[in-house]
Specification:
The structure is a single chain. With 145 residues, the chain is α+β, with helices and mostly antiparallel strands. Helices cover 18% and strands 35% of the residues. It has one domain. The strands form 2 sheets. Strands 2, 3, 5, 6 and 7 form a 5-stranded antiparallel beta sheet that branches. Strands 4-1-8 form a 3-stranded mixed beta sheet, with no helix packed on it. The longest helix is centred in the N-terminal third of the chain and has 16 residues. It starts with a helix and ends with a strand.
């Protein structure tokens, strides 16, 4: 058996054992300012991960590749409860930047939830459930101060 075949078998077993074979998360991000930087997507499975900013999945996309105010991506995912947060990391330093009084200086958004205040939301404000074999579409509308 060739190395390629062995790797393919291992990949199929991994997908099957982790339960991500049939689920897809279709993330549509709107209202992105036309500046450089990166679009950072964090997927959280619970409130604890969100509060400690330790997502179960992270993805980063170069903004200069996408100059429109919308961005879409499809991500394979296991079934279960999740919440998505998006950061427009304009200066590519890998974190949210705040001004002197704690207001975000970069764009942010949450799955199917438009943040109206300045306090960080709770996980249950933007969580959703992905069923087995479902393609779940969520929308994130970016907010900038």
């Amino acid at each position: 058996m060739t190395i390629l075949c062995k790797n393919l078998i291992c990949f199929i077993l991994l997908i099957t054992s982790t339960g991500i074979s049939g689920q897809t998360l279709d993330i549509r991000i709107k209202n992105i300012k036309k500046t450089g930087g990166k679009i950072c997507i964090a997927i959280f499975a619970n409130e604890s991960e969100f509060r400690t900013e330790k997502p179960c999945e992270e993805y980063k996309y170069d903004k200069k590749e996408k100059e429109s105010d919308e961005f879409s991506v499809k991500i394979p995912i296991r079934s279960g409860q999740f919440g998505v947060s998006v950061l427009h990391d304009a200066n590519c330093n890998g974190k949210m930047d705040y001004n002197l009084i704690g207001i975000p200086r970069e764009g942010f958004g949450f799955s199917n939830f438009f943040h109206r205040g300045i306090l960080k939301p709770h996980f249950n404000d933007f969580d959703f459930f992905v069923e087995k074999n479902e393609e779940k579409m969520i929308t994130v509308v970016m907010k900038y101060f």
